[in-house]
Structures are given as C-alpha cells and as structure tokens.
Amino acid sequence: MKKFVLTAALALGAVATAGLAPAQAKPARGTNPACHRMTPVQLDQQFAAVNASWASKSPDAVAALFDDDAVLLATVASVPRTDRAGISDYFVKFLKGSPVGRIDTSTIKSGCNWALRMGTWTVIMSDPATGAKTDVKARYTFLYQFEGGKWRIEHLHSSVLPANP
Q1: Helices and strands, number each (H, E), in the chain
Q2: Potential cystine with 72: which of 8, 28, 81, 82 (Cβ 3.0-4.6 Å)?
Q3: Domain residue spans of the chain
Q4: The domain at 29-160 falls in which architecture?
C-alpha cells in the first residue's frame, strides 16, 4: 500500500511540474501578440476619423468605420441600425447638417482587442438652408473592437441630454 501511495504521489508531482514547464507557460500579461490595446491618443485619432468621415459627406465613408455587424443607436433615429447598409442609410440625412463633433467629457476603459469611450459630447449642426449652427449636447458610448488588423466601431450610442436633468 505504501508503495502505491508513493507511486501515485510521484506521478501527480510529475504531472503538476510538467504544467509549469517554460515551453507551456502562459505569456506574461500584456505580451500576447494577438492582444491589441488602444491608447487614449489612438482613441482621439479614432474620433478625428469620425469627424473627417462626417466632413466627407459620404455615408459610405462613415459606415466604413463600423464593423460589419455593428449596432448604431443614433441620436435622431427611432430604430437601431444593425448592419452596414442601415448605418450608411442613417448618415444620408444626418450628413446634410454638416456635423462636427467635440468631446466634452470622456471615460475610457479598455482591454485586449476592445476599447470603450463614453461621456458627453457636442455635435454642431448647420442648417443646410441658412447655415445657422445649433449645438446638440448629447451622451455617447463608442465601443471599438480590433479585428482584421484594424480598429472598428462595434457599437455607437448617442442620446440628447435632457433639458432639465
């Protein structure tokens, strides 16, 4: 019996030790080559790309910033847009107001291949007939995902701030 217990203990010890062998060790945190993390500077660049696509007046250029199965819960839309065609369609009318966005407040959270930016923003809209400008104060949430070698918007939600919170 003692011989059996000793043999079993040695076998378990060998299995446990094999799991710690350097060839099988997990990579150190943050060193996974497949793990991309977005920096605050990169998030600012992503927002600049949104403004640049809005300035292009091309709904397809804006939609190209979104992932193929992204969800857009837009400020002035009554239905969620859940595919590239629907997102592009939303921006046909929206871009006529020559929007320009400005981040007012921002909270950032990020992880492996995703980044979340949320807060408040102002979108300046111009009346196409008169050129009069209107500031639209809103809340926003951008969720970005790294896929296919680039960062894309996976989800965007924007809603107008209440007049009297």
Answers
A1: 4, 5
A2: 81
A3: 29-160
A4: Roll (3.10)
Backbone angles phi, psi at 139, to 5 degrees: -95, 155
Q: Which residues of the chain carry a pLDDT beneath 50?
A: 1-27, 30
**Predicted local confidence at residue 25, as pLDDT:** 41
Cα 142 to the center of its chain, rounded Å? 5
pTM of the model: 0.78
Q: Which two tokens stand for residue 96?
A: 């006529």
For 117-163, give the DSSP string: EEEEEEEEEE-TTT--EEEEEEEEEEEEEEETTEEEEEEEEEEEPPS
pLDDT at residue 33 in the model: 67
State the pLDDT at residue 32.
Answer: 63
